[in-house]
Amino acid sequence: MNKHATVQDLAAETRDLLSHCGVAPAVFTAKSGMSVRSPINGQTIATIAEAGASEVTAAVGRAHAAFQEWRHVPAPKRGELVRLLGEELRKSKTELGRLVSIEAGKVTAEGLGEVQEMIDICDFAVGLSRQIYGLTIATERPSHRMMETWHPVGVVGVISAFNFPVAVWSWNAALALVCGDAVVWKPSEKTPVTALAVQGLFERAVKRYRDEGSSAPDHLSEVVIGGREAGEALVDDVRVPVLSATGSTAMGRMVGPRLAKRFARAILELGGNNGAIVAPSADLDLALRAIAFSAMGTAGQRCTTLRRLFVHDSIYDVLVPKLQRAYKSVKIGSPLEQGTLVGPLIDEQAANKMDAALDAARKAGGAITGGEPKSLPGLESGHYRAPALVEMPSQSGPVLEETFAPILYVMRYSSLDDVMAAHNAVPQGLSSSIFTTDLREAEKFTSAGGSDCGIANVNIGPSGAEIGGAFGGEKETGGGREAGSDAWKAYMRRATNTINYGSTLPLAQGVTFDIG
């Protein structure tokens, strides 16, 4: 049992957890800098020196020097370092998961689940380290061979958001490291403490790697704690050929053009106004459970949170009352307490945006269940809201915008073609789902004429993706892909090679160039 039994001990517990992960006290007890507060009770849990542009430039320089050496290490040997990182994460899963809950406000199961996601991507990357492959391509020229090869690209920048403070780094870093790259990470200003813990565990893995006789340069992973100035310096540094940025669409509109200006590769993971359709043939008990988790989990602060629900007329009056009862029954409170399903919003700004969205929905004719502020003893400085289910007369107003909070807008539909058009009629295109036992409906939803999202599910909600598939979306979600499938290709450069092993020089396309 944790020796810190109450939420009043969060600062002391944070210090203990960081020390467990190998972080020196001086790093998180600076005399001035960025004050980090827990959303659970508003308590300051750390003060961290803030990096500016010059510190970021120096960190990129160190990482670039590390890349120059690391790229020559064979990929399976690079995979061994990631395997050791996975082991360190396994050893400290409880501690790091607890820290995620304290800093990001996730319930215990979700904090632990985020660390498990890191472990899973490490396992995936280790296997990948022996499967980085190109193609042998048929050539029209005799005594020639044409092929493609993949090479490390350089320093990979990672700008992560508060809602998955450690997992998103791992999606990028585990792949980048086995691909031969170095990583510079700027975590969210709202959740820098967990980044320090991860860096401490990474450094332990490097030490074990060296102790086992392998060679790894210093500074393969750098963490820079800072605000906008630090982020802009990372985005603009020409030594960073690939940058992953997770956040709002507004952030992506600023980052994307800056990267394009210097022809850098962008991996953008932005907004997601995710929808789900409940068809007449749906298993309603299954749909109810999936909708509840997708809409209320992480207090509605996932990129893949369910925000729009379309229910067929024939089952609307059966399903929606059940959802309303579920919304009224969930336990709201400290995410560290057993049984809590909905924890706090990350800060006051998030709470104000939720309140404003509900006001707009009410003016647009919405009928609201829940959504009220919750004042909890000992947690008055946290920002707790009951999850809101809003029955809307149409998809308009706030329904067309992503509000990062537990608001689920519910609308009726009668025609599958009409509801597909409504589903796709938002600027974002991250995740989606349909609940149906009709094979034709399921296949249509996942077809070229169906959901226009990067993730399209059947009989599961839009959230809770596994790492084996490529994660990302279309339209204003940014088009980036991370984690599984062939997302690794974004962290490498491709070369097409033609090798002439003959004694003549035939040219392609029948061209002749005889110099006599």
Structure, described:
The chain has 15 helices and 23 strands. Helix 4 (75-91) crosses helix 8 and helix 5 (93-104) crosses helix 6 (108-128). It is of the alpha/beta class. The radius of gyration is 25 Å and the shape is globular. The strands form seven sheets. The chain has a seven-stranded mixed beta sheet, sandwiched between helices. The longest helix has 21 residues, at 108-128. Helix 11 (284-296) links the parallel strand 10 and strand 11 (306-312).
Throw out a few tags for this protein.
516 residues, alpha/beta, seven-stranded mixed beta sheet, five-stranded parallel beta sheet, 15 helices, 38% helix
Count of helical stretches: 15
Mean pLDDT: 97
Task: Give the termini separation.
Answer: 86 Å
Q: What structural class do helix, strand and pairing data support? A: alpha/beta
Radius of gyration: 25 Å
Strand order within the widest sheet? 12-15-16-11-10-18-19
According to DSSP, the number of beta strands is 23
* Low-pLDDT regions: none
Q: What would the principal axes of the Cα set say about the shape?
A: globular
Largest sheet: 7 strands, mixed
The proportion of residues in beta strands is 15-25%
| Helical content band | 25-40%
